[in-house]
Amino acid sequence: MAWRALAKKALSTSYLSNCGAAITASHSLHSTLPDVLLCSRVDLLTASRNLRSCWGIRNYHASVSLLSWRGRKAEEAPGLKTLGREKQVKRVNKLRAPPVEARYVPPKLKQQAKLTQEKTVEIFEGMTLVELAKRTGSSVRVLQEILTSIGEKVGSEFDPITIDVAELVSMEVGVNVKKLHSEEGAILKPRPPVVTVMGHVDHGKTSLLDALRKTSVAAKEAGGITQHLGAFVVSMPSGASITFLDTPGHAAFTAMRARGAAVTDIVTLVVAADDGVMPQTLEAMSHAREANVPVVVAINKCDKPGADPEQVRIQLGSEGLSLEDLGGDVQVVEISALKGTGLDKLEEALLLQAELMDLKARVDGPAQAYVVEARVDRGRGPLVTAIVKSGTLNVGQYVVVGAEWGRIRAIRDMAGRAAELAGPAMPVEIEGMRGLPMAGDDITVVGSEERARMLSQGRRKKLERERLERMNQENVEASAEEGDEADDVPERVEVAVVVKGDVQGTVQAVADSLRSLNSPQVFVNIVHMGVGPISQSDVDKAQACNACIVGFNIRSPPSPISLSAKQANIKIFLHRVIYHLLEEMGKLIVEKAPGTAETQVTGEAEVLSIFELKSRKSKGPDVKIAGCRITDGRFTRTATMRLLRSGEVVFEGSCASLKREKQDVEAVGKGNECGLVIQDCQDFKVGDVIQCLEQVIRKPKFVSSESGAVRIEC
C-alpha cells in the first residue's frame, strides 16, 4: 500500500513543478514497480495520459512494456473502460426491404409550361427581351434559350425583336398574346372608309348596295336573302371610294355580322320604314356598340304606302340610339333603294362621318389584314378574302393566317383582276395558302418560310390544347348534369352531323344554328366541318359515326359517292337556303327524339245505370257493370279507367271488360252507350264520371320565329 500511495503522490500534477520532473518521476517509479501490481501499472498509464493531455507532450520515450500495454485489448483489463474516443459505427437496418425497380421519372424542365390560359400579355413590334420577360413572368435567360431553340440569333437582352418572334416565344412560355400595332414614326396617308351594311333580314341591304354599284346581285341570291359576307369597292358620284361590307340578316349569321362590325369604320343600319325595328336590328346596334364604331341610319322603303319613318325614329330612340332629330349625333337618311331616291344624301352622310373620323393608315411596311371569308376553289385551292388594315400586301410574301401559312401566289381584287399589291382598306382575294384558315383570323407577314412554318405549328398546337381542354370541361359539365338529373328523365339521343359548305363563314353559321337545336332529349353533335363538295372521306366519317351529311350551297355529289352513301344508309341533305335547311333538320331531330311519356285523358263517360252480375264461383264476389254513355272522346279496352265523383277521384284501375250491345269491343266512340267493368271496383253510382286514360309519347316541337331563330321545345 505504501508503494501505491507513493506512486500516486509522485504522479500528481500538484507535486510536479514542471514537465521534466514529471517524466523523471514516472521513469524512476516505473522501473521500481513490480510487474505483479496490475493496478499500479494501470494507474501509471492513466497518469501518463493525463499529463499528455494537459501539457500537450507525447511520450515517444516510453518503455517497451508501456507501448505494448497500449496495444492490448480491453478484455485483458476487465472492469476498466478506455478513455479514448470510440470509433463511430454506422447502424444498418437489417429489416430494410430489398430495392425494387422504380418507374422512370423524367427530369424537370428548366422552364415548365404554366397553366396560364387566363393570362394574356400584350406584344408589339420592336419590344425587347427584358420587356417580354417582365410581361410573361419568365427570366431573360429562359427566353434566350427559347430563341436559340427556334433558330433565332441571340444578342443583348435590350435588342429589339419582331412581333412574330415575340409571339413564338410567348407560346413556348405558355401565355396568350394580344398584338398591339403602333403607327408611331410611320408615314400616315388618308384611306377610304370601310362601311358595313347591317340590319334585319329582307330590309333591303343588298338592294341598297345594288343601287350604289348599279348591279343586280339581290336578284341572283338563293331565296332572295344574303347568306354570305361580301366586300365591294364602290366609286361614288363625287369621285370618292368607299369599301362596303354586305352582311346577312338571317338570325343564323350572327358571327358574320360580328366579324363585319369588328373590321369596319362605320356601320350603316338599314331599317325598313314599313317594318320597323326588328330583332336583327337590335343585334346590329349591339355589335356596333361593342365595336365602338359610329352608326348612320338608312330608313329604306320610304316609297311604300305603309311606310312610317317617324315611327322608326321613335323606336330607335327608345332603344338608346341618339338620333340627330332628337338632339343626338347619329345621322338619319330616308332612302328608297328600289327607286334610287336619297342615295346622294346617304353618300354625303357617310363621307361626312369619315371626314370627322380623319381616317389614315400606314402605307409602307408589312401589311396587317383581316380575313373576311375563306373558301376552296376546285382549280385554285384555298382562297382567302381579306381587307388590308394597314401596310401593303405584296405577291410573294410569306404569311401566317391563324394556324395556316402560305406564300402569296396571286392577289385579285373583288372584280377578279390581278394585282401586284394591296393597300389599306382594299378588299382582295389571296391565293397560295397551304390550308383553309378560319374567317376572322388575322394575317401576319413573316420574313421566311421557316418562320411561317414554325409560327403555324405553334398556333396549331395551341388550338389543339385549347380544344382538348374545352372537351374535358364539357365532359365534366355533362357528368355533373347527369348526376343531377332524376331517374325519370328520358335518355338523351345523339344526332351526329357532318357539315359541308361553300365558304368557311356559312359552314360555321350552319354548325352554330344546328347546335342551337340541342334539347334535353336530343344532342346535336357536329362531328366534322369542311369547305367544298361532299367527298368519299365525308361518307366514311359519317358511316363510322352513324351521322347524316348536311351540304349547304354546294353541288350534288357525284354518282359513285351518292351510291356509296345510299348503300351505307347515310342521309344527305342539300339546301341553298338556310331556313329550308334548318326546317328539315328540325323535323329530323323531332323524329329522333324519344319523347316523354304522359297520361292523357282520351275520353269521358257518364254512368247512367248499374247492373250486378252474380259470380259463377260460390265464394267469388259479384261483378258490377256500369252502363255508360260516352260524352267526349273515345274509350279503349286496354286503357286505364278513373272513377270521379263530385270532381274527386274515387278509384283508378284497368278496364276488365268493355261491351256494346252484349258484344266485346276494343273501342267505343263518342255518343255511344256501353257496359264497362273496372278491375276490383264495386263502388259505382249513377251520375259518376269515368275518364279513359292512355299513356302517350309527346314529341318535342320545332319552333321558328319571324327573325329566323329556331329552337326545339320539349
From TrEMBL:
Keywords: GTP-binding, Initiation factor, Mitochondrion, Nucleotide-binding, Protein biosynthesis, Transit peptide. Residues 468-487 are annotated as: Disordered. Residues 190-360 form the Tr-type G domain. Transmembrane segments: none annotated. One of its GO terms (cellular component) is mitochondrion. GO terms for molecular function: GTP binding; GTPase activity; translation initiation factor activity. InterPro entries: EF-G-like_DII, IF2_II, P-loop_NTPase, Small_GTP-bd, T_Tr_GTP-bd_dom, TF_IF2_bacterial-like, TIF_IF2, TIF_IF2_dom3. Its main location: mitochondrion. It is found in: Mitochondrion. PANTHER family: TRANSLATION INITIATION FACTOR IF-2, MITOCHONDRIAL, TRANSLATION INITIATION FACTOR IF-2-RELATED. One of the essential components for the initiation of protein synthesis. Protects formylmethionyl-tRNA from spontaneous hydrolysis and promotes its binding to the 30S ribosomal subunits. Also involved in the hydrolysis of GTP during the formation of the 70S ribosomal complex. Belongs to the TRAFAC class translation factor GTPase superfamily. Classic translation factor GTPase family. IF-2 subfamily. This is Translation initiation factor IF-2, mitochondrial. It comes from Rhynchospora pubera.
